[in-house]
Amino acid sequence: MPVITFFSGTFCQKEAVVEQLTDRTGYRPITDESVVARAAALSNWDKKKLSAAFEPKTSVFNKFTHEKERSLAWVRLAVAELLAEEGLLIDGFSGQLISRDVSHVLRVCLIADLRFRIEQAMNAAGLSEKAARQQIHRDDEQCAAWVNTLYRLNDPWSPGLYDIVAPVDKMETGRIVDLVEENLRSEVIQPTDASKRAAADFVLAARVGVALAKEGHNVDVTARDGAVSLKINQNVLMLGRLQEELKEIAEKVEGVESVETRIGKGFHRADIYRKYDFEMPKLLLVDDEREFVQTLSERLLMRDVGSAVAYDGESALSLIEEEEPEVMILDLKMPGIDGIEVLRKVKQTRPEIEVIILTGHGSDEDRRVCMELGAFAYLQKPVDIDVLSDTLKRANEKMKRNKAARS
């Protein structure tokens, strides 16, 4: 049986279309939530972390952790393995992950003009016109970001992505369901030996992607009849070494017969490919001396420790509410909220974060207060980078022990 995927704007009557279609065809709806649950079972990852793969906002730590890319690798594998099942209607963002080479997929998009969607939101959800407009705008931004991530397209409703684009403001629900059913019977959309092989290739590529992500790598993966191709889209200081490492990992995946590496279009960009070291913490540097903290960030990066930076206490506390830093290096004397107050608030709300005080103006009394509040260490500027690195390593080890004890 063909697979059906639905991608829809909000307030475009998708629920009614899907309900009628599943009643008529017996197809089983698969939501993003059920795909994430399957990915969580495969990966032993938290569902919330995996769901972040669909979100347009990316963590400030992601350029070092590749957490979003790793989540996406697991979600892609969950979708790929689902294709072995019959009678699937994949509803949401997940269906966009299916390789375009898998031809027995009927891709359906539901959309309507803004006025219609606003009226639907006002009637169905009881929103004001302003609130409806704002929500639709936010939802469309998420759809656009998702499609741009996968296809480098800015229009999530681009007809080239779908077999059917149904304007729900101009077509009745029953007619849309009829149209989908008609296309399901088309010979073009039926599974063939070639499309089944493409689905198997998609599974293999997804498994290789997960194997690479587990080792901290982020490259594009495709497969064909056991031959795997890895595309490197970022500049790299030692290309030959990276290519050998990628091949070694991929070759261990069952079903892989050969591996080749290629240079992608993004290879000549200025940014540098970095394998993520899972032993390093998500580090937040907080200091109002911009030149100092930027230099410190660069020096730590040379030791494979990536960091996010905040230049005042207010920004640091706001970032902590939204992100998940594991270790902080915190200055004491800052305008606005000083370091001691930041430390106090962090330990009240996020006690699992290990805080290293690094100051050039502290006193013995400051040291006493900071340690009583729960600081991991108290260091004075200028600090020897080896001493700081060792302290950071020990703080990270304590954080991991505490996390393991809680789980």
Can you characterise this structure?
The protein is an alpha/beta fold. It contains 15 helices and 13 strands. It has helices at residues 14-25, 32-43, 47-51, 62-65, 67-82, 114-125, 129-151, 173-184, 193-214, 239-251, 290-301, 313-322, 339-349, 364-373, 385-406, and strands at 3-8, 28-31, 88-91, 105-111, 164-167, 220-224, 227-232, 258-263, 283-286, 307-310, 327-330, 354-359, 377-380. Helix 14 links the parallel strand 12 and strand 13. The protein is globular. The model has no long low-confidence stretch (mean pLDDT 92).
User: Which strand order does the major sheet show?
Assistant: 2-3-1-4-5
Task: Tell me the number of strands.
Answer: 13
How is the main sheet built? 5 strands, parallel
Which structural class do you get from the secondary structure elements? alpha/beta
Instruction: Tell me which oligomeric state these chains represent.
Output: single chain
| Sequence stretches where pLDDT stays below 50 over 5 or more residues | none
Reported CATH architecture of the largest domain: 3-Layer(aba) Sandwich
- Name of the level-1 CATH class of the largest domain: Alpha Beta
**What percent of the residues sit in helical stretches (DSSP H or I)?**
40-55%
Please work out how many helical segments DSSP would assign: 15
The helix-strand sequence is EHEHHHHEEHHEHHEEHEEHEHEHEHEH
Number of domains: 2
Q: What shape does the CA trace take? A: globular
